[in-house]
Amino acid sequence: MTITSKNPILVVDNVRTVFHTPRGDVRAVDGVSFSLKPGETLGLVGESGSGKSVLGRTVMGLISNDARTTVTGKVTLDGVDVHGVKRKERRKLWGTRVAMVFQDPMTSLNPVKRIGTHITEALRYHLDLDRKTAEERAVDLLTQVGIPEPKRRMTQYPHEMSGGMRQRVVIAMALACDPKVLIADEPTTALDVTVQKQILDLIGSLTTERDMATVLVSHDLGAIAGRTDRVQVMYAGRTAEQGLTSEVFAAPAHPYTDALLASIPQIENAPHSILRAIEGNPPDMANPPSGCRFAPRCGYADATCTSVLPILEPTPGTGRSVACHHPLLAGAVREGSEAAHGR
Known about the structure:
Layout: E1 10-21, E2 24-36, E3 41-45, H1 52-60, E4 69-77, E5 80-81, H2 87-93, E6 98-101, H3 105-108, H4 115-127, H5 131-144, H6 150-153, H7 163-175, E7 181-185, H8 193-210, E8 213-218, H9 221-225, E9 230-235, E10 238-244, H10 245-250, H11 255-262, E11 313-315, E12 320-322, H12 338-341
Parallel strand pairs: 3-8, 3-9, 6-7, 7-8
Antiparallel strand pairs: 1-2, 1-4, 4-5, 9-10, 10-12, 11-12
């Protein structure tokens, strides 16, 4: 993958998504920024609850201001302020300019609608196609995503297909109207390893063929490593580290990134080796700790970390940014995983 010199098609600027709950305000996304160019893939990684999915839905415009939610910052999609237009206009962006592949294909598909209907209704709504043309386009889309016997599959219901096939249908739905940006939110959840690879390879090839900008959301670092140009590591709603995927994985600058990488099982480890884990739990987002939110779990934390919230700023000589008072040295060895186990 190669990062292009084109202008960004998606710009996320200091976005915050706050849920107002009986327990208090929950800052699910707290000041996140990034940009994305056509043909480029960005990986969003982090533990469950880090804000990845909420960020994706906020970028889509599925989460907006109401009595229970406050969204600030700016999301610009192909020159359009997503949250600055009325909901009716925002609906016109979905499918044609930005599309999303949701985590669970079974809950993304209507169980009482045939597969063909799922795809053709978007084509007829957005592109104003007649029934015959829409059905022909739907069959072609099912073929593109690798579904055998596409004409027969058009008449089936979601429960008649495997998990991998349903996920391919969801991808076909997302790509039906040629979106410029695709957000894939944990697209391989609950799939076996072989199917996971097939789905990720499919998204990668379609990104290249269609020159799409793709956001790949995952907690699986292995899925992100070889399939993204840049990576953004999130923790407790904030960006911990961002940069080129190859550089971040080779020499993490944030102790949280370092700990995540150290938690990956290594094939060279002896059988029954104890897996490394990050001690403690993610913070309560209704009552987050003061200072750095990773400090209670970090072996490098000191008084500054527990009292002053670090800001995301460039790391000299690395070409990436990190939000840490004590960033790790470039090329630091992860052996021992001090961040995960204490010093």
